[in-house]
Amino acid sequence: MRLTLGVLLVAQFMLAVDFSILNVALPVMGEGLGFSLANLQWIATAFALCAAGFTLMFGRVADLFGRRRLFLGGLAVLGLTSLAGALPPAPRF
Question: Of 88, 78, 80, 91, which is closest to residue 18 (Cα–Cα)?
């Protein structure tokens, strides 16, 4: 079975939103971690490297257990964790 275009568009949208959230949150994250503006690029680089590494690893897992099932499961986990991150009761410092 093929994934429908709508599912693929939702996945691409979620990926774009996650990278956009990272870019918006960079100044606050850098301040909290004590990074200078020049070192903020390393946060985005670490995020991209982790995403690429997990893509390779889960590509192999998808070959073993089924691409569609893993893709839809990963999309559900990403959606739930994004929702959980967006709904904190109050900031904790």
Answer: 78
